[in-house]
Design brief:
The complex is a heterodimer of chains A (250) and B (224). By secondary structure, chain A is an alpha/beta fold. Chain A is built from nine helices and ten strands. A six-stranded mixed beta sheet of chain A has the order 6-7-8-3-9-10, with helices on both faces. The relative contact order of chain A is 0.16. Classes of the chains: A alpha/beta (250), B mainly alpha (224).
Chain lengths: 250, 224
């Protein structure tokens, strides 16, 4: 693990994070640091807590104890204005969660306009530009129901990017997609990574983790079991649990 | 022909009744929507007192027949108030509107609550994750979607409330059924008169159904 004294370029610092749902302890004292521009993939069996830790990073999930610092804001401090911090943390969900009563364009414009980051003219330009970037310029006025899963997820990514976040969280972004649509979403994510976006990705796409991640973290039973470069984890895993998991999914 | 005779003779009277039926329905539904929204907000709040008031209100209204509620409001409540304010009475119209509004409000409260709860929590998470406050998320994301979900149940409740105005004939409200009773009392034209009354209700409710189809169409944004 990297030295925590160099916290200037640290986007995320997690210290001794615990999270319980009732009697079930899902996170058991997680320590984690993510540097600016780093792409980190969290892999591991279902129910291991990897989505929970991601959701703690923007406090969609309230940590039971521990400290989380994102963008130098202590988000576990009750006094922190979480809405302000969230403006800089994009999140992409497994189920897309596009606003179903709004068109694609309105989906993208909603937060920047409501939060007075842009006028609606500016937001509209941004929306069109982002849709071009994710290859959906012709869908501006469509409603979410009229799109395929892959298209929805690309719109969801565009919606997050409209807020100009400096860190993006992906919660199993391709798990709800038909196999032939996974590629188009991963391509957009790859591009983002190449542009230097700080990304935390919970995923079952081992190919993506291997190609794109700077660091792969294997998560199991509420804590980090092993972490390292994709080569370390996929080619020479040290822990038996990592080996067992990888032998099942690769 | 009885029908033609009744149609000619009774129509002016019945139309008066129709007017009152429509008027009291509209007024009660408007008040009922406000009462229902308030009760819904109270019921979903974290404050146990507000929650309790809403729950008891809905329990009392749903647990008793409207005819009893009408008697309580029209005869019972004034008697109680007369002990403090001698000579206090409520007109049948006021008592009728109170009864119908409270009645519709309780059912509407439940319709609103179920509509709000039916909105996918993922919609709220997406909005909050963008940094949008819970208040704006409620007004711009949850409520518009909840409204669409509740349209069919709302229309249903509106229809029930319109028909329930007929119960208010028991406290002497001069609505459609009451007018018909008066006419029948002097002419004994039961069949023709009540068929005519039924037709009037059918027309009123059909108009409402046509309007609601139109509204539903306007909100069918997610049809492919």
């Amino acid at each position: 693990m990297t030295n925590s004294n160099f916290s200037d370029n640290k986007k995320v610092i997690v210290r001794d994070l615990h999270k319980s749902f009732g009697n079930l302890e899902v996170l058991k004292g997680v320590d984690l640091e993510i540097a600016e521009g780093e792409v980190v993939c969290l892999i591991g069996p279902s129910g291991s807590g990897k989505s929970t830790i991601l959701r703690c990073l923007n406090r969609l999930e309230e940590p039971t104890s521990g400290t989380i610092i994102v963008d130098n804001y202590n988000i576990t401090d009750k006094k922190t204005d979480i809405n302000k911090v969230r403006e800089n943390i994009g999140m992409v969900f497994q189920q897309f969660n596009l606003f179903s009563h709004m068109t694609v364009k309105q989906n993208i414009m909603f937060a920047p306009v409501k939060l007075k980051k842009m006028t609606s003219e500016e937001a509209e330009k941004v929306a069109v530009r982002l849709l071009e970037r994710v290859g959906l310029a012709d869908k501006v006025d469509y409603y979410p129901r009229q799109l395929s899963g892959g298209q929805k997820q690309r719109v969801a990514i565009a919606r997050s990017l409209a807020m100009k976040p400096d860190i993006m969280l992906f919660d199993e972004p391709t798990s709800a997609l038909d196999p032939e649509m996974v590629g188009e979403v991963l391509a957009v994510m790859k591009e983002l990574a190449a542009e230097g976006m700080t990304m935390v990705v919970v995923t079952h796409e081992m190919g993506f983790a291997r190609d794109v991640a700077d660091r792969v973290i294997f998560f199991s039973d509420g804590n980090i079991v092993e972490e390292g470069t994709p080569e370390d984890i996929f080619d020479s895993p040290k822990s038996q649990r990592t080996k067992d998991f990888l032998s099942c999914v690769l | 022909m009885d029908f033609l005779k009744v149609l000619k003779e009774a129509t002016p009277m019945l139309i008066e009744g129709v007017r009152l039926t429509i008027g009291i329905s509209l007024l009660s539904l408007m008040i009922g929507v406000i009462v229902g929204l308030l009760s819904c907000i109270m019921g979903m709040s974290k404050n146990p007192v507000l929650k309790g008031i809403s729950a008891v209100y809905i329990w009392l209204i749903r647990g008793t027949p409207m005819i009893v509620q009408a008697f309580v409001v029209y005869f019972g409540v004034p008697q109680l108030i007369q002990k403090m304010v001698p000579g206090f009475t409520l007109t049948a119209f006021v008592a009728g509107v109170i009864t119908l509004s409270l009645n519709a409000g309780a059912y509407l409260s439940e319709i609103f609550r179920s509509g709000i709860e039916a909105v996918d929590p993922g919609q709220i998470e997406a909005s909050r994750s963008l940094g949008v406050s819970s208040r704006i998320t409620m007004t711009r994301i949850v409520l518009p979607q909840a409204f669409k979900i509740t349209i069919p149940s709302l229309v249903n409740q509106f229809i029930i409330t319109i028909k329930d105005t007929s119960i208010l004939s028991v406290i002497g409200m001069a609505e459609l059924v009451n007018k018909a009773k008066i006419y029948v009392g002097s002419t004994y034209q039961f069949f023709a008169t009540y068929i005519l009354v039924a037709v009037y209700y059918l027309v009123i409710i059909s108009v409402l159904m046509i309007v609601s189809k139109f509204v539903e169409k306007k909100f069918s944004y997610d049809k492919q």
